[in-house]
Amino acid sequence: MKTSSSLLGELSKHQFLRDYWQKKPLLVRQAVPQFQGLLDPRELIALACTEDIQSRLVIQRNDQWEVHHGPFKPKKFDHLRKHNWTVLVQGVNHHLHSAATLLQLFDFIPHARMDDLMISYAPKGGGVGPHFDSYDVFLLQGLGKRHWQISAQKDYKLVNGAPLKILQNFHMEHDWILESGDMLYLPPHYAHNGIAENDCMTYSIGFRAPTHQELAEQFLVYLQDKICLDGIYSDPDLKIQPHPSEISSDMLRQVEMIIQRIKWNKNDMTHFLGSYLSEPKSNIFFDPPEEPLDHSEFEQAILTDGIQLALKTQMLCHGNIIYMNGMAHAVDKPAYRELRALADVRRLNSRTALSQETLELLYIWYQNGYVFPGPF
Ligand code: SIN
Ligand code: CO
C-alpha cells in the first residue's frame, strides 16, 4: 500500500485543509496506487459474524429497504441473492493491523477527530441508497468498481418510515466510477449514492464531529461529578403567602443564585474533552495479557521489541495530561514528551530510553491490555 504523497493527488495537505476539508468534495484518482484492499469479502463477512463488532446488512428489493444488524450467523449470507445487498462493518481498525496502518495515511487530521474505518462489501447493484452523513468521510475504493453520484442539494428530506436514511429527492450533480485505489472525499451533509458496479469493497475513513447538543450534555454529565456547593436552602425571613401552593419569587431568586455558583475553568474543559474523546465506545473490550510479564521482564521486553498501542486504544494529550481510553494522567514534562510520541505514531521503537514515570504508566496500561511490547 503506501503512499501519502499521492493521497491527495496534486494537492498538499495544507491546500487540502484550506480549500476542501469541510468545504467541498475532492476526487483523487489513484490516491493509494495498487490498493487491492486489506481483506476479501469472505473475511469481511467473517468479521460481520463476530461478537463485539458492529455490522449491518442492507438489502434492497425494488424500492423497499431492509436493514439487519449483526453479529450474523454465517448462513445468513448463503441465501442472499447475487445482487442488490451490502454488508457494512464498523471499526475494522480495532481488529486489523493493516487497517490501523491505513488510517495513519490520514494523520494530517488530528486523532481527536478520527472515528473509525468502516468497510463495505456489495455484489453488483448493492449500496445503502442516496443519503448524507453528518461527518467528513474519505471513500477509498478497494476491490471492484463503485459508481458514485453526489449532490450539493440542501433538500435533506428523508423517505418516511424507511429503516435507514434515504433521501426522498436525490438530484445527482456529478458522478464517477471509482476503481481500486481511487478516493472520494465528502464534507458533512453532502448527498451521495454509491452503487456497486461489480463485486465491490469500499473503505470509509470517517471523522467524528460531535453535535453541540452531545458536547453540552456530556459536559453536564462530567460536571455533575465535579461540582461541590456548600450550604442549604434557607428562609429565615419567610413571610405568610396568600397562596401556599405558589412558588414564591424569593425562592426562585435564591435557587437561581445557587445555580449561578456552578463554575468551571479551562482545566475542567480540557479534562472533560480529553476523557470524553478518548473514551472507548460501549462495544469495545480490551484483552489484558493472560500471563502478564512482571515489571522487570516488561521493561526488558520494551527495550528489545519496543511498545505499541493496542488497536482499540485511543490516546490523546494536552498540556501535561495524557488521556488513555477515557482516563486522565497528569505527568511531568519528560514523560509527557515520551508518551505524546507514542500517541502520535502508536508505537515507540526498541532501545528508546524511557523515564521511570513513563515506564510505571506503561506497565499499568499493559496490565489493562491498552499497550503491549512488540515490534509494529
Ligand atoms: C458504502 O460503503 O456502501 C457506504 C458508504 C457511505 O455512503 O457512506
Ligand atoms: Co455515506
TrEMBL record:
Domain JmjC: 98-224
Family matches, as SMART domains: JmjC (SM00558)
Domain of life from the UniProt record: Bacteria
One term of GO molecular function: 2-oxoglutarate-dependent dioxygenase activity
A Pfam family this chain is assigned to: WHD_ROXA
Cofactors required: Fe(2+)
Keywords, ordered alphabetically: Dioxygenase, Iron, Metal-binding, Oxidoreductase
Protein name per Swiss-Prot or TrEMBL: Cupin 4 family protein
